[in-house]
Amino acid sequence: PQGESGARHQLQGLAGVIMLAWGTVLVIWATLIIASVDPKIYERCELAKKLQKAGLDGYRGYQIGDWLCMAHYESGFDTSFVDHNPDGSSEYGIFQLNSAWWCDNGVTPTQNLCHMDCHDLLNRHILDDILCAKRVVSAPGSMKAWDSWTRHCSGHDLSEWLKGCEIYVKENPRKLES
């Protein structure tokens, strides 16, 4: 009888250790998941400075205002935003880069022209998003690849997007031509 209670006590102790170990594994797993996604909704001026630092001001004739306007209408500056299209493709990240053309989501048949996993576009580290967006505007069609840019940004005064941001931007060469 005393041997039984001793064995029961050891089993209870072992069960507690196992539960503690599983709890630790779950906490580590959750931390890794959060760290790997690590999303961010950028503030307008914060994003403007990041885009400028990455060389987007004047890139292929587009100013920071073009990029801010497009990103606002595409994702609301949210790096974790994913949108699903009727054709089965999906759009990822702050610039809503399409899985059929620019990245590989493991589901959609893709050209993967940016040579990257779509899920890498969902974190706060947007240099890879910017490099891919540069490829998009370097392709024929350029900024028109984003319908939201054509509808909301093209031909509009985009200076409001930079108000209060305290950054120096290059003069828009397209304005000088008109």
UniProtKB/TrEMBL annotation:
Lineage top rank: taxon: Eukaryota
Transmembrane parts of this sequence: 12-34
Keywords: Disulfide bond, Membrane, Transmembrane, Transmembrane helix
SMART domains, alphabetized: LYZ1 (SM00263)
The UniProt record lists the keyword Thylakoid: no
Entry's Gene Ontology BP terms: fusion of sperm to egg plasma membrane involved in single fertilization
CDD domains in UniProt: LYZ_C
Ranges in coiled-coil conformation: none
InterPro entries: Glyco_hydro_22 (IPR001916), Glyco_hydro_22_lys (IPR000974), Lysozyme-like_dom_sf (IPR023346)
Any Pfam family: Lys
PANTHER family recorded: LYSOZYME C (PTHR11407), SPERM ACROSOME-ASSOCIATED PROTEIN 5 (PTHR11407:SF31)
Family: Belongs to the glycosyl hydrolase 22 family.
Name of this chain's protein: Sperm acrosome associated 5
The organism's taxonomic lineage, starting at the top: Eukaryota, Metazoa, Chordata, Craniata, Vertebrata
